[in-house]
Amino acid sequence: MSISVVALSGSLRKKSFNTWLLNAAIELAPAGMSIEIVDLAPFPLYDDDVRLVAYPPVVQALRDKIAAADALLLASPEYNYSVSGVLKNAIDWVSRPPGALFAGKPTAIIGAATGLFGSIRGQNHLRAIMAGLDAAVLHKPEVMVAQAAAKFDEAGKFTDEAGRKLLGELMAKLAVTVEKERKHAAG
Ligand SMILES: Cc1cc2nc3c(=O)[nH]c(=O)nc-3n(C[C@H](O)[C@H](O)[C@H](O)COP(=O)(O)O)c2cc1C
């Protein structure tokens, strides 16, 4: 069964550990799951005056992709104990009407940080934000990559075996969650 996932990285760095973690998720995803990483670099800062006229094309494109996707995968660095502004800005754009695009959407949250805590504080904020938007956030397994500089090789491959196993399990659980939602929707 095919499952489409929209993935967002909260870091714009070319050698972002979080974007590399999304690449690892693509590698470890179960058969039939396709994951598209949407680049947030061109996103304007949220402006409600702009929204009331029309969503900027890049924003509308992401809104359309999320509306059509079966699930979401969010990777955020921890910036000053919270989610990055880049990701929060995109979430803010997508959260506004028409529709409630995050509501009920199976959502997996992952993160990498260079410190000892593996983005846990930022992830907790992100989980609260997505719960507030009524997304169906997966709680476990938690993928929090601490001391990220030691867990990726020069080419950006996620090399931590324990972390790879957890990430693979999370992606499998995301697929199961989507399938359950489909069965539920079909009655
Ligand atoms: C503005 C800023 C704030 C940061 N705050 C934290 C923090 O609160 N906790 C933490 O573990 N790392 C923090 N870091 C370090 C990030 O974990 C590190 O830069 C990481 O590589 C960012 O993810 P990326 O590789 O995907 O860009 C911060 C980095 C920046 C640039």
What portion of the residues fall into strands of 2 or more residues? 15-25%
Q: What is the ordering of alpha helices and beta strands?
A: EHEHHEEEHEHEEH
pLDDT averaged residue by residue = 97
| Total number of strands | 8
Number of helices: 6
The CATH homologous superfamily corresponds to: Flavodoxin domain
User: What small molecules are bound in this structure?
Assistant: flavin mononucleotide
Structural class: alpha/beta
Q: Output the radius of gyration.
A: 16 Å
Largest sheet: 6 strands, parallel
Ordered list of secondary-structure elements with their pairings:
Layout: E1 3-9, H1 17-28, E2 33-38, H2 48-53, H3 57-68, E3 71-75, E4 78-79, E5 82-83, H4 85-95, E6 106-112, H5 120-132, E7 136-137, E8 143-145, H6 161-186
Parallel strand pairs: 1-2, 1-3, 3-6, 6-7, 6-8
Antiparallel strand pairs: 4-5
Bound molecules: flavin mononucleotide (FMN).
Write a concise keyword list for the protein shown above.
single chain; 187 residues; alpha/beta; Rossmann fold; six-stranded parallel beta sheet; two-stranded antiparallel ribbon; 8 strands; 43% helix; binds flavin mononucleotide
How would you characterize the overall build of this protein?
The protein is of the alpha/beta class and 187 residues long. The chain has one domain: Flavodoxin domain (Rossmann fold). The protein contains 6 helices and 8 strands, in the order βαβααβββαβαββα. The chain has helices spanning 17-28, 48-53, 57-68, 85-95, 120-132, 161-186; strands at 3-9, 33-38, 71-75, 78-79, 82-83, 106-112, 136-137, 143-145. Strands 1, 2, 3, 6, 7 and 8 form a 6-stranded parallel sheet that branches. The chain has a two-stranded antiparallel sheet with strand order 4-5. β4 and β5 (82-83) form a beta hairpin. The longest helix is centred in the last third of the chain and has 26 residues, at 161-186. The radius of gyration is 16 Å and the shape is globular. The two termini are 18 Å apart. The mean pLDDT is 97. Flavin mononucleotide binds at residues 11, 13, 16-18, 77-81, 112-115, 117, 148.
